[in-house]
Amino acid sequence: MNERTRYRVTGSIFLIALAVICLPMIFDGAGTAVSPPPPTPVVTVPRDTPAAQALAEFDDVVPVSDVVERVDALREEVDEAGFDTASDTRFGEPVLAQATEETRVWAIQAASFASKDNALAFQQRLRDAGYEAFTSTLRSARSGEELVRVAVGPLLNADEAKSIQTQIENRFNVEAVLVEMSP
């Protein structure tokens, strides 16, 4: 068989195979229509049956919860931007406030930054030096500007907190402030 005949036979076999595959798809149509499932029947259980008693016991097992009321109360405490309305601190971050004589948990606010990146860099410098540093975002009540505070803590001893405050001031050349820390 010469080469030209071989190409024609191969091409013919290819076209026949393509027709066998594609023609049924073309002439098949839209196919069968899918019918919606039948409606779910409503079952009523008479009160004096064991099934009704089991349902009543189930109602007793599921505890009554005040989750919805607590979420609504929380929505009143947190604004749309995620700040606690009482402390102007981002919700979930430690609250830093002016220390008083009743302060039980201390922190040292080492610096505050308008840029979160700068705050995180300084936090890392404190951590590299061995301090337990964290950040807390505060929204200024006057200007609405967000400040990211970098602090060290928590500390339970006021004398230890004052000592660490002095160490941080000397080592990092900042004016650290002794503050009260609350979750």
Describe the fold and architecture.
With 183 residues, this protein is of the alpha+beta class. It has a domain at 95-182: Sporulation related repeat (Alpha-Beta Plaits, 2-Layer Sandwich). Helices cover 42% and strands 19% of the residues. It has helices at 3-27, 50-61, 67-77, 116-128, 158-172; strands at 95-98, 106-113, 133-139, 146-155, 177-182. It has a 5-stranded antiparallel β-sheet with strand order 1-5-2-4-3, with helices on one face. It starts with a helix and ends with a strand. The mean pLDDT is 82.
Question: What labels would you give this structure?
Answer:
183 residues, alpha+beta, five-stranded antiparallel sheet, 5 helices
Assess the beta-strand content as a share of residues: 15-25%
Report, as a whole number of angstroms, the end-to-end distance.
90 Å
Given the helix and strand composition, which structural class is it? Answer: alpha+beta
CATH superfamily of the domain at 95-182: Sporulation related repeat
| Secondary structure tally, helices | 5
The CATH architecture of the domain at 95-182 is: 2-Layer Sandwich
Radius of gyration: 36 Å
Reported by name, the CATH topology of the domain at 95-182 is Alpha-Beta Plaits
The count of β-strands is: 5
Main sheet record: 5 strands, antiparallel
Helix/strand layout:
Blueprint: H1 3-27, H2 50-61, H3 67-77, E1 95-98, E2 106-113, H4 116-128, E3 133-139, E4 146-155, H5 158-172, E5 177-182
Antiparallel strand pairs: 1-5, 2-4, 2-5, 3-4
